[in-house]
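Thread: "does anyone have the structure for this chain?"

Original post by V.I.:
We have the sequence but no experimental structure in hand. Need at least a predicted one for the grant figures.
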Amino acid sequence: MRTMNHLLAEGEDLVLATIISHAGSTPRSVGTKMAVRRNGTIVGTIGGGLVEAEILKLAPEVFDTARAQVKTIELMGATTATTDQMICGGRLMIMLEYLATHPQTIREIQDLIAVLQKGRKGYLIKSLQIDPEAGRAESFLIHDGQIVFGRSFLSESWLRDFAPEADKIRTPFIMEAENQRFFIEPTFVPGTVFIFGAGHVSQQVAEVAALVKFRTVVLDDREEFANSQRFPKADQIVVPSSFEQAFTGLEMDSDSYMVIVTRGHLHDKTVLEKALRTKAGYIGMIGSRRKRDMLYQTLLSEGFTQEDIDRVHCPIGLNIGGDTPEEIAISIVAELIKVRSGID
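Reply from O.Q.:
Generated one for you, tokens below.
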């Protein structure tokens, strides 16, 4: 998104290809995007090989007409039988949009980036009925219940009904409403990882989590450890006066993932106590089973319930047999991905 914003600001128009639905086995998921430049180079990927070759064939027409298109690409049967590409055997529906070097287009992308950076829920809603005059897919962005840009082409009653359902949306999808079809795309990262502690394992967790599109927040009471030099990929770094104060001002819900990797058992206990009082969707703590069992007994004696204890993943991460900070980070983030995907 930032690359597209930069290219548009530099005066370069683009064609944006977005996967809006798929069936069968396909290389990338719904919502994946790729931008095509006039020179035929691309930014991002929607599956490589055959898929991107087809998009590159279609892009010149979109550039020439400045009109959006919705195309279906078959990855099965005769379409791919004569190629030497790896065949997935599915079907993709892709929207191709012309992004002009227009102040309005640039402002809208900047608004999207700002919403993403805030980490709070927003939704981009596009009509799949291309406007015959404008040649574009009409869209509007909802953030915190308000329309950020565009105008709503849906009734107020629909928007009221949509609000309580919005919290359940995690992935983009096509929906029919009021005799029209719409592509609804969450514009927030589905999962903020709060990393308590800024040691070697934390550094690697922040790096790996960023690679798989988690938003990351690092918290430690030592500024010499919690800083942008050590955590260049972190979306936010918080340096509280103590771990007792670490939760002040944080907004946590079912999309929040707590990773407790502080420098000592007492700090772990402090953070865990506070984490158990939140609605976090995941709470994980590093440590041995012996440490875990001792801490659990203490928490039970202090009034926490077994149901509370059962929320905690400890030892944290999937068991992959690794013991370096990098391997531990991979095991932790793998578990986060598993939880985010809804896999038991």
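V.I.: this helps a lot. Confidence is low (pLDDT under 50) at residues 78-86.
O.Q.: and The longest helix spans residues 49-65.
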